[in-house]
Write a structure and sequence with these properties.
Blueprint: H1 3-13, E1 16-19, H2 25-38, E2 42-46, H3 52-62, E3 68-72, H4 77-86, E4 90-92, H5 98-106, E5 110-112, E6 114-115, H6 118-127, E7 132-134, H7 142-151, E8 158-160, H8 169-174, E9 180-182, H9 193-208
Parallel strand pairs: 1-2, 1-9, 2-3, 3-4, 4-5, 6-7, 7-8
Helix pairs in contact: 2-3, 2-9
Amino acid sequence: MSHIAAFDAAFSRCPLVAILRGVKPDEVEEIGEVLVSAGFTLIEVPMNSPEPLDSIARLARRFAGRAQIGAGTVLTEAQVAAVEAAGGTMIISPNANLKVIAASAARGLVSLPGIFTMSEAFAALETGATALKLFPAEAASPNVLKAMRAVLPKDARVLPVGGIAPDTMAPWRAAGAPGFGLGSALYKPGMTAEQVGANARAFIAALAD
């Protein structure tokens, strides 16, 4: 199965990306375990975390066949190659760097660039983005997403990221969001695995409402 097909299958099971910004390698597997046990299938370790490639490699080994692992805050083509070498298959960025998108697509990796305008959205899709990340969602609104959905290709997935909590998901979903990226409301450095597990279950429950 290709990385894109594996992502699509994982996304269909649970369209929530767990963003573990600041996670450390010595805790990442325990946190990954509670996330996967709760039902998460997509896990991101931002590149500005401590030793991110070590964490990505640990997660990729432990959860092979159970979850798709990738990197966030990927800003360069060199980082794309490094993430792939560590076993990551998702390349997630805060911006729409067309070189990063093209490099990811050329390697058969999942490309999830950050966009905020229609120009960025269309350019990213044309360059090979797998899905789009509306970021920062705090500065947008469900109405903005609804307007985007009216002109984007019907199959284009746009995931709000930034400030998403279990009780704020419903309006975004009504506006056409097929999934979300989840940051500090799910995981913050210093949280125990038990706390992360409880947060994860709350998000899964909200998704089912």
